[in-house]
Batch of 2 targets.
Target 1
Amino acid sequence: MKPVCTTCPYCGVGCGLLASGDGSIKGDPDHPSNFGRLCSKGAALGETLGLEGRLLSPQVNGAPTDWDSALDLVAGKFSAAIRDHGPDSVAFYVSGQLLSEDYYVANKLMKGFIGSANIDTNSRLCMASTVAGHKRAFGNDTVPGNYEDLDLADVIVLVGSNLAWCHPVLFQRIQAAKAERPEMKIITIDPRRTATTDGSDLHLSISPDGDAALFNSLLAEIARQGRVDQNYVDFHVNGFEQTLSAAQATDPEDTGLSADELQLFQDLWIGSEKVVTVFSQGVNQSVGGTDKVNAILNCHLATGRIGRTGMGPLSVTGQPNAMGGREVGGLANMLACHLDIENADHRKAVQEAWRSPTICTKPGLKAVDLFRACASGQIKALWIMGTNPAVSMPDADAVSQAIKTVDFSVISEVVEHTDTSVMTDVQLPATAWGEKTGTVTNSERRISQQRAFLPAPGETRPDWQIICGVARRMGWAEAFSYHSPAEIFREYAALSWQAAALGCDFDISGLSGISDANYADFQPVQWPIPSESPGADRFFGAGGFFHSDKRARMVPIKATPDILQHGNTFRLNTGRIRDQWHMMTRSGKSPRLSQHQSEPFAEIHPKDADELGLRSDELLEIKSATGRAVVRARITDRTARNTVFTPMHWSGANSAFGRVNVAITSVLDPFSGQPALKGGQVKLRRFDALWYGFAVSVAQILPQSAYSAVARTESGWSCEIAGIDVPTSWEQLARKVLNLKTGSISQVRDSAKGIIRVAIHEGARLTGLFFVARTPITIDRQRAASQVGSNAQALTALAGLPPIGQPDPGHLVCACFNVGSNTIRAAIHQGAATLVDVGNCTAAGTNCGSCKSELQMMINAAPVLAAAE
Ligand SMILES: Nc1nc2c(c(=O)[nH]1)N[C@H]1C(S)=C(S)[C@@H](COP(=O)(O)OP(=O)(O)OC[C@H]3O[C@@H](n4cnc5c(=O)[nH]c(N)nc54)[C@H](O)[C@@H]3O)O[C@H]1N2
Ligand SMILES: Nc1nc2c(c(=O)[nH]1)N[C@H]1C(S)=C(S)[C@@H](COP(=O)(O)OP(=O)(O)OC[C@H]3O[C@@H](n4cnc5c(=O)[nH]c(N)nc54)[C@H](O)[C@@H]3O)O[C@H]1N2
Ligand code: SF4
Ligand SMILES: [Mo]
């Protein structure tokens, strides 16, 4: 069987893949987003395709039902709410992980037929500040440049981006360009040290939210050095003088950088015309996110460094279809094809194209307000699609409560139990990645197709079909009578012609006549794709902005650094880890991906840890007025004093108290409504565990106790656990934790040291291991996990020894090729002195490269280790 060309369902790089029904996944060498490269998550997709935990039939009030009954119920409840309380009494909360065709029909149903704009998306938590910043500066939400600019730039500045972990294939692309042209400079601006800062020439550890001050200072320096592109500004830009004055009023000390660091950065930025400024969530997820975006754009506009090869601002998108969602108008304040709700001509064009009975006339509720309206009773019927707000929204307990409060709630999901789905009245089973076909747009405006290469399991249906099924039952059969995603795509592409005629950037009208056969054979293509002429590669090189006077706006920015910091609280910074995707409903199925980091943690500075009386690997309680989380402490100076960094990935489905968003209150950017998810205000305390434990079982372990985090292993599940009470029987506790009712128990106890180790055998097969101690468990997890499911003897297993005759690979470092630390150390010991040597000997680091900084640290440590031996 020939493999199917498809696109990765994870990040906004949008890598092309070759996928086969047997689960083998390779990078597509011909796809222009990745040219065959993949990262650890993309490479492990084959391990996530199993049907374990999938939602396979519609459920109403916890019982399976047929599609007709479920869809009748949903349509009936939404229609009744609209009839009794008006169109604004219902809401959709959707996702940048839907395909454009799904997203387009959801938006059409809400804005054109129900007649409300109460549809918002998780992009509100993600890209909203960039959208608002782009619109202020350019008139439309336009990404001016391309990935190719990263190959050609002389200076690349990464602002609030951990590209090495979050957009690894772009990071590899930059590293490859740097290997060819070592004079190229990579600068990363992040308050914390990351794998990305490790791989940069210069790391500027700015104060949290110091970004606007940094780019304001840069603008002032551009003017001081006489490096403004006066011609470009005169012809294409408004607002230069006021913006410069505001920038000159900024105190450079607000960046938290030394004068030397600041000068070095400014000289590098100003000194090379070919500079690309890449930005991500350290910019967007801030109370001043939109201002940060404009502070960056101001510098590119003032120097005319935009829309030409090798230069420009580049916002990297998070989700696979974050960009497509913006294009279809998934945000509550947008119409399809980048048209504006507030503009009567735009509304008319959309309504005419849709031949719809109505059209929303004002922006709808943005995510945070939408859930508040659920809590207050204004929203009577809520439909969530492809997102898990009970975990991913700030003030997550209040959001959970809001969902419970709504009279009627529905979710379209692919897995059976998420923290959100268990609170909804109706669960509709959607086909997952690999089972459905449609388009997505990546960070460089490139539209590619995700294609089915597996059959739809059980009763699952693609999201667009589910939405159309409800719309038809609500009385709009004709407008939602699509038979295929191709049909939806043609309508959408035709609407973009109207948008372009009204002066918008988004034009894919050249695809409005695409045949079913050509849609099936869709090749990756970048917009604009006008019908008459070939589209340009980039925007704004010669002006042509989308404000009515065709000029850009520089926006005066008042830099207000770290305004969230006050009192004796810590600043809670949050984000991502290398090998997990969001709430792990898919990446968490891969044992390989679950090994790199298998529990929620907080990076905390050694001095802060000292003051809290906290030792390494103990537990930390993170608390605010809204909620509390308990996570493992990682004491490191990679994070600054008075700040902690925690990953966002743990939920109630896999941890006891790992949902960190319960402790983040909803503080919003005033322009975009995006929450400041990087600036939580929390109190910290050492969590007084009486005992610490580690468990591995062939059976599924469930989160429990005062602290626990569950992860997949090759032969089952593992769990980090801790308790605050002494159980009546350790044997009983072991059985409960391991979820093993039967089997014979062996145990080792050292009461003086407070150590208890339990093994359970079913015949000769070791089915579970449970280690308990008064202090954090130091046992080698990988080794223990590899023994469960085998015929290992109790004594060997409980001693934590490797099975006889097997080498111990050690802690997993390279997830792509499953290479552990011991294997790498052995290679280094035998003379491997560079990354290339280590790669040649062990294959580690030769695929996605995300582990290179870890490998380099091991190489650097080698002489020290050798001396100590
Ligand atoms: N492995 C992995 N990759 C992913 C995802 C995933 O779940 N896992 N999710 C995808 C999605 S949806 C998104 S949106 C992207 C996000 O991609 P990124 O934005 O790169 O990732 P984050 O880890 O959220 O945050 C980036 C950095 O912002 C820094 N930061 C915090 N506050 C500030 C500040 O005030 N200023 C500056 N300059 N930096 C600050 C943090 O320390 C952090 O290192 O990743 C995508 N890729
Ligand atoms: N503290 C903190 N919180 C954050 C962030 C942060 O940096 N810090 N980042 C924010 C950002 S940028 C983002 S993007 C959000 C992400 O947050 P969420 O969107 O809540 O995260 P996911 O776990 O990806 O949720 C997607 C859900 O859709 C389901 N799904 C997968 N495929 C399909 C499909 O084809 N159809 C349907 N119907 N469902 C499907 C998955 O099983 C999963 O449950 O989190 C935000 N929250
Ligand atoms: S970089 Fe990794 S996660 Fe992102 S699209 Fe490519 S393979 Fe997927
Ligand atoms: Mo995101």
Target 2
Amino acid sequence: MKYKSTRGGVSGLSFQDALYTGYAADGGILVPESIPVLNMETLKSWASLSYIDLAKKIVPLFVDEVEIPASDLNGLLDKAFAKFTHQEIAPIQRLKNGLNIMELFHGTTWAFKDLALSCVGQFLEYFLSKQKKHLTIVVGTSGDTGSAAIEAVKGFEYVDIIVLLPKGRCSKVQEQQMITAVEKNVHVYRVEGTSDDLDIPIKEVFKDVTFTKKHNLSSINSINWSRIMVQIVHYIYAYLQICPRCDGEVEIIIPTGACGNVTSGFIAKLMGVPIKFVCAVTQNDIVARAITKGDYSMSDSVIRTLAPAMDIQIPYNMERLWYLITQDSKLICKLMTEFESNGKVDIPTFLKNQIEEIIVATYVADNEDIKTTMRRTWEENHYQICPHTAIGVAYYYSTLKPDHKRTTVVIATASVKKFEEAVVAAGLTPQKYEEVEVLFSKPVKYTDMNKGENWELILRDKIEDIDK
Ligand SMILES: *Cc1c(COP(=O)(O)O)cnc(C)c1O
């Protein structure tokens, strides 16, 4: 499999190239040159596979054997999932009222980002150690990405990671997960500002292409193809768990932010898996407006909600969806150029209609809706959900019909353990988790970046220092 840019200026990249690439040189993002299609017989024959065994079937469709031979790849995938605490990796809870919840939070940092980043970490160390090359990852995070990325690479020989987090604005557990990484290749900064503020020095550093190349910098956000690729697995797994005979369609409700997760599902659909999607979002509703009205326009500011991982202004992966549907890089260039200069663009009706055939509904929840749903799931099942998951479940409840049997699954993107603040806000009693207590007894290591300091300079100095 080779990779190309959505904007037509780059093609023929290997998986390894794609792994190191954020934005392509032409400003676009990478997609596979073709989408492998699975026939029903193949799909059926996978129905009894474990999650990891399924990953071992799907990842090779996108990574050539000459790049990573099967035996190596299988070893990397085993290692990536070794620290997951549930043997099924992504178990489905079957609750009252036909509510199925797929728990994607059994990785080390208790959010779905562990699924992909644990693999990405293994891929990086694999290629880098062969080439004896060093890479520095720079991540700005509002919570889950930073901790999952740290976990994925801590202790590695050929990778250092620098994380900037907005001090006091993540949940307590999220911040604690990041500042308790004491390994010498992990460098965490608590920035006195919002996640938008901390993006500024990072952007400035990445704009300096000479510097970026010289120090081999990378950012592993969901622009990165390898993350999207690994996430395809959990959609196919979800389908096979809910519909093992492969004789029907499954509706998957996805709490959505930057659309990385839904893009993976979208690709599973294009591969021939009979699934359709609902995107559930916070009041930062650009995704919902784009899908249902063709109105892709940035709002003036980000509203802070109880589901911070979904509070985004630009869902970067939309560009991938448009390209995957149209395969028309001229159109993508035109749309994105307009969006980049005006902060808004109208999506052509034919494109909007085709997306709506796959993403069949959207749902926008406010904080009241989140809290009510967290309470209802608890009252009906004695099962607590995180505020992000609650937005998906809120859609499910809002469309519940008493006798109507649906084959639906809601993606649980994070564990409630990470969001005690939201549990309290919902009027519920937080449960005690031993692993959370352990986390708060660990030693910490971090540096503060305070207002008035030159953050860009601090970041550059650190990067140079690592490379010495
Ligand atoms: C990152 C994240 C999301 C949003 O996922 P996208 O792929 O950006 O759409 C939703 N919920 C949680 C808990 C997350 O960490």
